[in-house]
Structures are given as C-alpha cells and as structure tokens.
Design brief:
Elements: H1 2-9, H2 30-34, H3 48-51, E1 59-68, H4 73-83, H5 87-97, E2 108-111, H6 116-122, H7 126-138, E3 141-142, H8 161-167, E4 183-191, H9 195-206, E5 211-220
Parallel strand pairs: 1-5, 2-3, 2-4, 4-5
Length: 221
C-alpha cells in the first residue's frame, strides 16, 4: 500500500516508452524490459566480444548484457545513468544482468575506474554502480580502489581502433596488491574496441590474477 501511495504521489515513467510504471516496475515497464535487445553472449562462449580479448589467455569469458543501437532503449538507459545522475539505475542494471553470471567463479568484482577529474564532474562511477548491483546478487566483493586511472585521455569516439588502444597505454597505475589465486570480474558500462577494458586486464595480469571474466551492460552489434 505504501509503494502504491508513493507511486501515486511521485509517478515514474518508463525510460523507453514514457508510460507510467506500476509500483513493482523500475525504470522500464514490463513490455519494454521483455523486449530489451539481449546479446545472449553468456550462452555463446566463442562470442564476438571475447574475440576482442584473444590476446590475453587469462581472459576466460566476456559477455555484454545488451546490444547498443543509436537511439535505442540501451542508449536511453545509459544516458539516464551517466548524464542524469540515476545512480540507482546502474545498481538495477547490475542486478538484472547478474543471475546469468552465477556460473562464473568470481572472487572479486573490479569496475573500470574513472579518472578523478571525470569522477569529480560526474560525482560517481557508473561502472562501480553496475558492479554493486552484480555483487549483491553474486555475493562477491567490489574492489573499486584496486585499479586507479592516472591519465585522463581525450574522447575515444572519433578515433580508430588502433588509435584507441594507443590512447589507453599507461592510463592505469600498477596494482600493488597481489591477486594470486583470485578470479576477477571486470565490469564496464559499454565496450566498443575493448581498449579501456583490455588495458585494465593487463594490469590485473601483472598483479598475478588467476583468471579474468569481462562483462559490460552494452556493446555494438
């Protein structure tokens, strides 16, 4: 009854279709959530995303939750998360994705870090919020301070694949903690070429991590 009263006083609309949400729906109405553009990566061990990281044998799996289409529902979700300050949307997206990751042997969850200048501007790290949602379902520790981004690179959107990888060299500080015997889940919001995530994986390998699994909410089709 309380939830219904709150919904009546502070009505919420679906991010995608703008229809009113009922008291048990969050961010998306049920029809829009059912129609999300799922990748099915978790059921395809040789998927396109994993092939981006074939250079590193310790990367054992990679999967994205949704396909990204310009103007589509995935872009709307990420826009609200990153630019409209909806931190709880990141946590919710992590919770939606997490059940399909239960079979992965995860010891720690590592969100892709933001440089302090971008973190100060945005006030939170969207990948960390997604990680929190995943960790609540998988009961794994989030290690937000494990990796630090020490170089604020310029935007990657207009760069080629080679330029993106070159642009990411040495952006992360070396990880001081010994991760021997541990399995890490690296979490990003969107993966395109994989440069940002790939360089973080290299730092984890230098820290003797046992194996790496990569996930993101979105990737291109």
């Amino acid at each position: 009854m309380l939830q219904d009263l709150i919904a009546l006083i502070f009505p919420q609309n679906c991010i995608n279709c703008d229809q009113s949400l009922n008291s048990v729906e969050k961010f998306l109405c049920t029809p829009c959530k059912i129609d999300l553009p799922f990748t099915n990566d978790v059921h395809n061990p040789d998927n396109e995303l994993l092939r981006k990281f074939s250079f590193e044998p310790k990367v054992k799996s990679a999967s994205s939750y949704l396909y990204f289409h310009r103007g589509g529902v995935t872009q709307k979700l990420l826009h609200h998360l990153k630019y409209k300050g909806k931190k709880d949307l990141g946590v919710e997206l992590g919770k939606w994705f997490a059940p399909s990751l239960r079979e992965l042997p995860i010891d720690l969850v590592v969100p892709v870090p933001l440089h302090k200048s971008k973190l100060r501007k945005r006030t939170f790290n969207q990948s960390e919020q997604i990680s929190i949602g995943i960790s609540e379902v998988l009961n794994a520790e989030v290690k937000s301070d494990l990796a630090k981004r020490i170089i604020a690179t310029e935007t990657q959107t207009k760069k080629s694949k080679v330029q993106r990888w070159t642009n990411m060299e040495n952006v992360y500080a070396k990880i001081s903690e010994d991760l021997s015997g541990q399995s890490a889940l690296v979490v990003d919001d969107v993966i395109t070429t994989g440069a940002t995530t790939g360089m973080l994986c290299q730092r984890l390998v230098e820290a003797n991590v046992k194996e790496i699994h990569i996930v993101s909410i979105a990737r291109g089709k």
